Amino acid sequence: MRSRALLALIFFAALTVALPLLGLAAAGYPVAAHAGFPPRTAFVAHAPFAWDAFIVLSLPACGALALLWSALARARPAPRRSPAWRFPAWGWIGVALLAAGWILAWTEGLVPPGWRRHAFTPLWLGYILAMNGLVHRRAGASPLTQRTGLFLALFPASAAFWWLFEYLNQFVNNWYYTGIEASGDWDYFLQASLPYSTVLPAMLSTWAWLRQFPRLEAMALPPLRAPRHGGWLAFVAGAAGLAGIGIWPDALYPMLWLAPLLVLLGLAQLVLGESLLGPLGARDWRPLLQPALAALACGFLWELWNYGSLAKWHYSIPYAAGFHLFEMPLLGYAGYLPFGIECALVTDLVARLVEHRALWPLDRASDE
């Protein structure tokens, strides 16, 4: 299991880097501008807002929300006992870090600008500790305390994972950063890697918290089994999407989020012979819907806390750049749904590598 998980992670990273460059080369476009590291993206103007494109791009998001509503409507939650454990001391440390980080990130003149630029990392570390504290209070254990090795391994894995998306963003130029000061590439890499390292731990912590809600734990839909050769179909579709994003960036920019998901699903089936989404065949849709919801919750907070920060990101998206909620166009939040599943799939591979077992179930006690 361990060697196959490592192989799948290596394949995923290599394909994510190579396929967009191969697509550009096949189309006769230069590739040198995208081969540097670390990737940095400046503002690029895209096609203006268009209602017809906005409506078409909204359809998958509406379908996903309808699927979620159906799963919640079918849920038959069992009663859950009141919390029996105290909120841990380290959880209160997280609350304090979160509050201090938020104040420092949004308050001009309270601390030097150099400090304020780095407030995003302690803010999210505080969030991660606080969420684990909430889970611990309800369940008596949390990812931090029950699967500590996996939890700690997710920090470096998260930094590497998000750098892949920064790399892909060079081809579509959908977001860019302001308020950052770095003396060179190495300084920029270190500064950026710190907040990037919190993405996967925050996702896993939020997912574990969502599992404490009985209705979300009881979501049910008809069984869905992968079609024959489904792994190959997903892999080829994802590979084609990655190869195409640099050639047709305005038309294929949603592939920034969908193509890596398809590649991961394909690799899980082809390399591991199984997938985190295998339980869908037994009517258990939690491994799909819960991480998607967790990403949406984290995404709202990412965008909220980014809004008043000194070092921050902005969006430039073709056709759908309207109806903003914070810096993010409203339709852009739909990208968090597949991103959450991608985070779950990568976390599953890291769990197989570190713990020699699959990610699901998140905890043994609640599923035995």
Overview of the molecule:
The protein is globular. The chain contains 15 helices and 4 strands. The chain has a two-stranded antiparallel ribbon. It has a two-stranded antiparallel sheet with strand order 3-4. It is mainly α. The chain is 61% helix and 3% strand. The chain has one domain.
Topology at a glance:
Elements: H1 2-26, H2 51-74, H3 89-106, H4 113-116, H5 120-139, H6 143-146, H7 148-172, E1 175-178, H8 185-196, H9 199-210, H10 214-217, H11 230-244, H12 249-252, H13 255-272, H14 286-307, E2 312-315, E3 324-325, E4 328-329, H15 336-354
Antiparallel strand pairs: 1-2, 3-4
Helix pairs in contact: 1-7, 1-11, 1-13, 1-15, 3-5, 5-9, 7-8, 7-9, 7-15, 9-14, 11-13, 13-15, 14-15
Question: Can you give keywords for this protein?
Answer:
368 residues; mainly alpha; two-stranded antiparallel sheet; two-stranded antiparallel ribbon; 15 helices; 4 strands; globular; disordered C terminus
Quick overview:
The protein has 368 residues and is mainly alpha-helical. The chain has helices spanning 2-26, 51-74, 89-106, 113-116, 120-139, 143-146, 148-172, 185-196, 199-210, 214-217, 230-244, 249-252, 255-272, 286-307, 336-354, and strands spanning 175-178, 312-315, 324-325, 328-329.
